[in-house]
Design a protein that fits this description.
Largest sheet: none
Radius of gyration: 19 Å
Shape: elongated
Order of helices and strands: HHHH
Structural class: mainly alpha
Number of strands: 0
Distance between the termini: 65 Å
Helix content: over 70%
Number of helices: 4
């Protein structure tokens, strides 16, 4: 039973750390997962299910940040595609084989 308590404490600590990081930075689930070296699924479960059990008010605040991120993700995706294209075009220019 002692080991279970330690595991539970570790999870609860991680949930609060991830939640606070998301609030402080406004980062995405993917960015938080990378920062804490855990899966996106774990981040999502931590902030959408576990946090709600530990601190419903904090869970609501984190949800607002994630909802904004979700609403803006199509914009970030378009920007990433544009950057990828621009960087690819720059590499082609160095070899003087520009594709239009």
């Amino acid at each position: 039973m002692y080991a279970s308590s330690l595991s539970h404490d570790y999870i609860e600590d991680r949930v609060y750390e991830v939640a606070q990081y998301i609030l402080d930075t406004g980062c995405t689930v993917r960015q938080a997962a990378k920062k804490f070296e855990i899966s996106k699924s774990t981040v999502h479960k931590d902030v959408s299910q576990r946090l709600k059990q530990f601190n419903p008010a904090l869970a609501d605040e984190v949800r607002k940040v994630l909802d904004v991120n979700k609403a803006e993700r199509h914009i970030r995706g378009g920007q990433a595609t544009k950057e990828k294209y621009l960087h690819g075009e720059l590499r082609c220019r160095k070899t003087e084989h520009v594709l239009h």
